[in-house]
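On to our target:
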Amino acid sequence: MNGIRIREVKEGIISQNDITAAGIRSHLAEKHIFFVNVMGSPGCGKTTFLKRTVEALAGKAGIGVMEADVDSDTDAVLMEKTGADVIQLHTGGACHMDAHMTKEGLNELGDEFDIIFLENVGNLVCPAEFDVGAHLSVMILGIPEGDDKPLKYPLMFKTSDVLIINKTDAGEAFDFNEELFRERVLSLNPDIRIFSLSAKTGAGFDGWMSFIKEKYEDYRA
């Protein structure tokens, strides 16, 4: 033996992150705040989806939104137009939000809300690995991304509670086999809820809105 010591750093990081995430959930439960983590790759339509969701909830619940990006405040500016309280979070180059960063964002945003949404940094890898303390994890996949993504990024599909198949208005322009896609997803996560819709046109959005309202009411109860 050469005497070199080996430590699994990632395991330690994840373990500490999970402790912080559990603390976030406990704190938000005390405040009766429902926390939703929205994930997906760049260009999948996260901001458009979230904007339409927040607009549909206007007047029914107090909404806070955390927009996470490596840089820029583009999405926060768009989201602010909904009337929700919005905070922009810069990750300093990190490709995801972790529980510690989320806790900082929540502290800055405040806790006078019924529902808080986090739009996570855009990619299908890192955000799936880090629990941020959310009560509901939603991933979005745009039809132009292709039906093979469950094969390439299985963890994202395994750890999400909800899958939004977005950009159905562009379906005819792309070779996307939704039946095959759903089979691949459900083989990874049989309990995931799947909604097909267009965040741009609003087609199919009613099913998602009924679901999120029901989840919120169940949580409050």
Notes: The chain has a mean pLDDT of 93. The CA atoms of residues 51 and 79 lie 6 Å apart. Strands lie at 34-40, 63-69, 85-90, 115-119, 136-142, 162-166, 193-196.
